[in-house]
Amino acid sequence: MAENVKIGVYVCHCGANIGGTIDVPGVAEFAKGLPNVAVSRDYKYACSDPGQQMIRDDIKNLKLNRVVVASCSPLMHEETFRKCCSDAGLNPFFFQMVNIREHASWVHQQDKAKATEKAKDLVRAAVLRVADHEPLMKKRIPVNPSVLVVGGGIAGIHAALTIGNAGKKVYLVEREPTIGGHMAMLDKTFPTLDCAACILTPKMTSVGKHPNITLWSYSDVVKVDGYVGNYKVTVRRKPRYVIEERCIGCLQCISSCVFKDAKFPNAFDQNMGKRKPVYIPFPQAVPMKVLVDPETCLTLRTGKCKQTCAESCGQMAFDFNQKEEFKEIEVGTIILSTGFKPFDPKRTPHLGYGKYPNVYTSLEVERLVNASGPTDGHVVMRDGRKPESVAIIHCVGSRDEKTNPYCSRVCCMYSLKLAHLIKEHTNAKIYEFYIDMRTPGKGFEEFYNRIAEEGVTFIQGKVANISPEDESGKRVVVEGENILIGRKVKIPVDMVVLAVGLEAQSDAKDVRRLFNISCSEEGWFLERHPKLAPVSTFTEGIFLSGCCQGPKDIPDTVAQAGAAAAEALVLIDRGEIELEANFAYVRENDCSGCKSCINLCPYSAISFDLVKGKAVINEALCKGCGTCVASCPSGAIGQHLFEDVQIFDEIRGILTNGVKG
Amino acid sequence: MKYALYPGCVAEDSCRELGMAIKFVTRKLGLEMTTIENATCCGSGYLTAYDGELSNFLNGRTLALAEKAGADTLVTVCSLCQLSLMKVDKELKRDPAALKRTNERLAEVKLHYSGKLKIKHLLQVLLEDYGIEKIAAKVTRPLNLKVAPFYSCQLLRPSDILHFDDPEDPKSLANLIKALGGTPVEFPGKTKCCGFHILVVDPEMAIKMSGSILEDVKKRGADCMVVPCPCCHLVFDMYQPRIEKGLGKKLRLPIVHLPQLIGLALGMMPKELGMGRHVADATKLRPRAKASTGS
């Protein structure tokens, strides 16, 4: 212990939160008798301005060199009081916080006497501990100003443009051959019925042309090393079999392909349209470069083809020997905007998807109504007929214990939109089967009224079953209930549209491991705090935006993308970040090089120095969990703020009065 | 595999023809089954809901009797029996205290249940143990009939107790019909409830429920409908005249028990299989000489 320790103890009432259960003046009085305590006070709200001023004055006037505040959770005010100490010239780590609110007052409201005794024990523990604190410093490390944005949908596009416009370098990595994501597949967007492509493509072209944005499409991230401010990322660029720099997007190769007719399913059109082995996903693709599908191209599959595509290319851009390329980049922050995948309605077999050809998903219908879709914007079914009656079924895969319990947030609105578009294209009779109509956004309720006035029939009730009306298969019967009139309904319709919900991408659990972040149970990436930190993660320097964090519509996605960009710019603008001071460290003389600690670290923060034969802890990666400290057989690892002597002080303080029954 | 047959109440009395058919058909197939003597009613689901302990004792006794007869598998021929026994058995297998209490009562009548019995419906036994190819091989008179498979809801659901076939889109009975040389008639009502349980409470509702099923089946050109549960059989067959009255049209649709359908394909005559007892005349139902054409 250092010499001449002088501790100031401050016990807070926190209004009635603590004062209502614990005898706060009594605890302050008790603390006066503890070793090394120079002053002990109680105060109504220690965190307030006058409260903090009182502490600062005591430090100056009474020459305190340790401070203990007994109040709420450190998560709330540890930083507040640490700053208060450093403002008064005292090292902030000579401060110890005691939680007598969540740990005593709030959980033992029934027994005030015992709660007070517990508070005293906790204060004693802190007073004994803080005497053995060391002065610590928060190290600063520089932040690389470049940013990696993973995922090129509207979220990634907006984030990349925001950061690029701020003058910073951005790498935008997208695994499909084009950016645009799901928004590019839509026809019109709710509630304004803006054409999706019209509002999206200008942003897409900006990305393609932006001097600060390096766009790597048809690529994915395979490795992430490093830590906040200094990430080393390996990106795999998949082979298009076309030299990107040379392709000018004239599409001559597609017309010259040996396949005279397009006959392979086009994933962008939800496998309803056809394409050739050499293709672009859709007419406004960015980058406007073709690619060759190795599964269907004759050259790549069999080696035998006239290669009329390559012959017709005026830029000599074809290279069938192209291999995947790995690029290593260094960035300071990463924004994840990897989006969602639509729920697969084969998991709800009673709705007949995949069994009956007249049952569609909403995304398939988006492609049907879209003028650049497989039917040129005509709503015709697989048998060529125009539907005269359509049922739109809400909540497919959502709000359901058996599939996904959550609400997917966008389906009510897009179902209304599809009702409008289908009616516009076909004048069919439309039935919307819903559970609740969720239309909370700006202009959303008005949109609902508009669609109702257009003559769409709304039936509140779940659909139990869809089955063919008769052998012809022309119509299917939708069996449901109309709970507002208390009757079952059986409605024969030509076409059924399933409003499928949103789910996390199928590889979300693998991707999250790559970036060392967490997922929620349903697979959405986990935000640091659902209300106050929706775009940050528990990993410093990695941010989330868009549907990868949870289902949301385009306005919210763009807002989040801007927020993530702003958070990244905070780090970049500051230029450096502070590391937490409670990291573990190796006492080299004591380290025997047994390597027991290395694999135990959940953050891969420990490496082995082969030259010295000692374990080395990376302070930036270390999160201070203490696992290695406890495991070291030689006791060679210590942890700042959690040294053995400090922990034993606390234990002594708590158990001084013996174990109470 | 050693089988003990639990006929249940209905197969012994109201649907006596089911009992007859089972005897003949299992013999023809070479399936040996000892009939459990002095078993009691399963409680039809009502008992389990009303007094779980009593249901455990009563049905536990049935299970113990099956074990006493030297069987490792108990065979039911009624969905209600299947579900009731499965529910009780699941409880006894899951909760050692319940099994102990049950065995304490059973000890009074010198019985004991080890908790190891398998419980299968006849359809399960035929498909899972006996084998569909073996059945097809024994067919001497392919049915050449359009047969609608009615699964009987308590054979499939709750699926976490019964673990048999797909509760939403089952195929087992349809596959059996094909193996017997028949053509299964797919219809959406195949997994629905016949309304047996509310027959005494609200007969009109039960008649509506079963009526819509029969009407649909008839519209699709079925020659008959096969039901693996005698309770469903009571509704569709015994109540057919009332259903016809409710619908305002004649149906004349033979409702066939599972072993009866198999018996026909094995060359037995309808009268032998007890089909003379049916209300909706089934005596003229027999395999056709060639495949039926048209609908």
Task: Quickly describe the structure.
By secondary structure, chain A is α/β, with parallel strands linked by helices. Chain A has 17 helices and 34 strands. Chain B folds into 2 domains: 3-122, Glutathione S-transferase Yfyf (Class Pi), Chain A, domain 2; 139-277, Rossmann fold, CATH 3.40.50.11810.
How does this model look, in words?
The complex is a heterodimer of chains A (about 650) and B (about 300). Chain A has 17 helices and 34 strands. In chain A, strand 11 and strand 12 form a beta hairpin. Chain A folds into five domains: about 5-135, Rossmann fold, CATH 3.40.50; about 140-230 and about 330-340 and about 505-580, FAD/NAD(P)-binding domain (3-Layer(bba) Sandwich); about 250-310, no CATH class; about 340-505, FAD/NAD(P)-binding domain; about 585-640, Alpha-Beta Plaits. With about 650 residues, chain A is α/β, with parallel strands linked by helices. In chain A, helix 6 packs parallel to helix 15 (about 555-575). With about 300 residues, chain B is α/β, with parallel strands linked by helices. Chain B has two domains: about 5-120, Glutathione S-transferase Yfyf (Class Pi), Chain A, domain 2 (Up-down Bundle); about 140-275, 3-Layer(aba) Sandwich (Rossmann fold). Chain B has helices spanning about 10, 15-30, 45-50, 50-70, 80-95, 95-105, 120-130, 130-140, 155, 160, 170-180, 205-220, 230-240, 240-245, 260-265; strands spanning about 5, 35, 75, 120, 145-150, 185, 225, 255. Chain B has a four-stranded parallel beta sheet. The mean pLDDT of chain B is about 90. The interface between A and B is small, with 8 and 7 residues.
